[in-house]
């Protein structure tokens, strides 16, 4: 299941935050931030902490890519 956190990185740019600031704001570990950077799965608890810290919905930070285009 291909996971993408592109939405998270775009959101950080919009909010003028970097990854270190995200780590401190959300309380997740550096390991979690590293996994996010590699589009690797992380615990749901970590994603919820990030969403709450950024005051966004879960779908605003993660996307499941199924390999099909939206037109199909």
Automatic annotation (TrEMBL):
It comes from the Bacteria. Signal peptide: none annotated. Residues 7-65 form the HTH cro/C1-type domain. CDD domains: HTH_XRE (cd00093). GO terms for molecular function: DNA binding. It holds the Pfam family HTH_26. SUPFAM superfamilies: lambda repressor-like DNA-binding domains. This is HTH cro/C1-type domain-containing protein. It comes from Pseudolactococcus reticulitermitis.
